[in-house]
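Long-time lurker, first post. I've been practising inverse folding by hand and with some scripts of my own, and I keep getting stuck on stretches where the structure tokens seem ambiguous. Below is the full token string for one chain I'm working on. Before anyone asks, I'm not after the true native sequence, just a reasonable design that respects the backbone. If someone could post their per-position residues I'd love to compare against what I wrote down in my notebook.
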């Protein structure tokens, strides 16, 4: 089985985007407030949005299952207040749950959280509970910068985050540390802000002692870890200068990286630097990079091509494409086991 642990509903039917536009407009003009129940989207609209897009590519690339969460750039936690984000998160999470109900063998839900700048992170705990217990979510996307590129939130090691970590450990659910849209013109959303955040999250974790307090917490840093694998020596050196443990010892029992790296040399380096047990297959297809690579004639985000060409043994390839995901996502493993897979 090939499990893609990083998929977003980037092709959601148009009524979802229109509802969000109305919600944002209503912040200044209450007359435009959309129906609190959310947009009207039929099952056929969902099928149409997926069968020509993610499902088609999954079939072409041999991917069996995708962990599917709301579109990351649409989370936009900087818009409005906590109530704004709470309503938006509920609607987006419910939609991903519907996808998983329509295609139970192909999609497994992940969820966004109702974060808001300056608001206590503990406010997201009820949505984590609802998503896992009622929607069958196997992971959450947690934004370390709800301000949208201005970085006003405390580091992930700050005690204000502890209620979130406690709930994730209680439910045995990992979190993907994933930012959203940048509203700071200095940081392009997918070309700078996403990769900055991956690198920043790793450095925050390295500088703190989060996993001493939460030894069972599992965090995924997406997009191949940003600059981390490429600059592994820098982080080892910084740890030494800061009188911190080597990151391989202090972080790699709890921190994982995905394979959303869009060229062969990048995948090769990732596999060379990071232990295989800390890597999870992913593509984030129809995401930040959607075009064909003119050098290869294949999509940049067809990451399984790179993985297959990396010279892994059959055992290591099986761990990367399935075994590691089932270990890091216990609820995903339970779901697949219940399906006889």
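-- Answer (accepted) --
I ran through it position by position. Result:
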């Amino acid at each position: 089985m090939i499990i893609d642990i990083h998929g977003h509903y980037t092709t959601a039917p148009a009524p979802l985007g229109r509802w969000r536009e109305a919600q944002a407009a209503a912040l200044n003009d209450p007359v435009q407030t959309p129906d609190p129940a959310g947009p009207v989207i039929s099952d056929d609209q969902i099928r149409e949005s997926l069968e020509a897009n993610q499902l088609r590519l999954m079939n072409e690339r041999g991917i069996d299952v995708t962990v599917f969460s709301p579109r990351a750039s649409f989370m936009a936690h900087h818009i409005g207040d906590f109530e704004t984000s709470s309503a938006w998160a509920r609607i987006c999470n419910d939609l991903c749950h519907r996808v998983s109900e329509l295609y139970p063998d192909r999609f497994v839900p992940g969820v966004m959280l109702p974060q808001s700048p300056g608001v206590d992170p503990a406010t997201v705990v009820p949505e984590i509970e609802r998503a896992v217990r009622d929607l069958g979510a196997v992971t959450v996307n947690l934004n370390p910068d709800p301000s949208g590129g201005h970085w006003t939130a405390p580091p992930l090691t700050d005690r204000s985050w502890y209620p979130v970590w406690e709930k994730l450990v209680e439910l045995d659910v990992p979190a993907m540390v994933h930012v959203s849209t940048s509203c700071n013109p200095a940081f392009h959303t997918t070309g700078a802000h996403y990769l900055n955040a991956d690198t920043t999250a790793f450095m925050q974790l390295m500088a703190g002692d989060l996993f001493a307090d939460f030894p069972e917490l599992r965090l995924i840093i997406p997009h191949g870890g940003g600059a981390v694998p490429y600059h592994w020596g820098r982080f080892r050196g910084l740890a030494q200068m800061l009188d911190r443990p080597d990151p391989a010892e202090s972080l790699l029992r709890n921190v994982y990286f995905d394979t959303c790296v869009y060229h062969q040399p990048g995948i090769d380096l990732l596999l060379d630097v990071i232990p295989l047990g800390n890597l999870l297959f992913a593509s984030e297809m129809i995401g930040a990079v959607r075009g064909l690579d003119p050098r290869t004639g294949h999509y940049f985000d067809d990451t399984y091509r790179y993985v297959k060409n990396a010279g892994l043994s059959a055992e290591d390839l099986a761990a990367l494409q399935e075994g590691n995901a089932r270990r890091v996502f216990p609820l995903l493993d339970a779901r697949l086991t219940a399906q006889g897979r």
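A couple of notes from the structure itself: The first strand starts at residue 3 and ends at 9. The chain has a mean pLDDT of 97. Happy to go over any region you disagree with.
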